[in-house]
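Today's session is about reading a structure prediction critically. Students often jump straight to the picture, but the first step is always the sequence itself: look for stretches that repeat, for charged clusters, for runs of hydrophobic residues. Only then move on to the predicted structure, which in these notes is written as discrete structure tokens rather than atom positions. Here is the chain we will use throughout the hour.
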Amino acid sequence: MKATPLNQIHRQLGARMVDFGGWDMPVQYAGVIAEHLAVRSAAGLFDVSHMGEIEVSGPQAFDFLQYTMTNDVSILVDGQVQYTAMCYETGGVVDDLTLYRFAADHYLLCVNASNSDKDFAWLQDVQKKSGFNDLSLVNRSSEYAQLALQGPVAAEILSTLTTVNLEEIKFYHFAEGEVAGISTVVSRTGYTGEDGFELYCPATDGVQLWQELMDAGQSSGLQPIGLGARDTLRLEKAYALYGHEITAEIMPLEARLAWITKLKKGNFVGRDAMIKAKEDGLLRKQIALTLTASGVPREGYPVFCNDEEVGFVTSGTMSPSLKKGIALALVSAAVADSDQPLKIGIRKKQILAERTVLPFVK
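Below is the predicted structure for this chain, in token form.
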């Protein structure tokens, strides 16, 4: 397994480590529930250095990204971030990612950890087949450490360590500056649904940045947070996770991601397949469910309507905030568009689940 520069610190803090897409990562320190609630009430610090970073630059950078991304790159300005996806010709998802515009000819893609090598190879293949020759693609994943400072007091903590004016960084925007004397990209983004920042710095400075942030946040209740709470936090906000809500077999349109799929912007990889699927009528749609009785829905559990299996859970958990079982599920479009009662199969029982307006936690 690959290790981030901070692995020794995680072990010193007593973290339970797991294999996450080939990376040795902390799943929890004090426990998922305690860590989850710390982020909702104060602040948490995540090591997400396993995420991948791919640089796209050159005269054809914009045209290439407009062709490979589902979202409309033309609306971006320097210093702006965009949530988007890359799709196969079939319409299935290669990966979802955040796209950073540094200049009209310079972008950075932050991709999912387990997909970084696959994503880079796919981009290279598209470049080769489509004739984008005046373009540079560089996989810089090993050069970055990435930390996520998330929670209601995240900005208060970070402001003590930087001269960057955090108030001027709007949601899904970023600035370059120093944090604790370390050259850092400060991005007002995250995966928790709370205010916060994702901080990109040289890999060699990751340990120092972690320690400086933890020291600065000690009096404000800052806690180290593992990937277990990261997952429950994102699910309460119904954020998609690759391999669950979106896969090579699940289109963005099926997964409530039509808002990042700009079919009218012009040609891009996968567009034709998605237009056809939309015109023919989607066969499946994602819905949100909350259990009405005790139980924990998990990925892959069946969803029933009138005792007929009509879909499956893509992500599920016991919500630490709501203390109820919550789930995202992919079900037949006819059932999704109806008001028929649904049940989730858990341990040979069918438990009634209410359709839920998202996000689960406001």
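Discussion point for the tutorial: The chain is about 20% helix and 35% strand.
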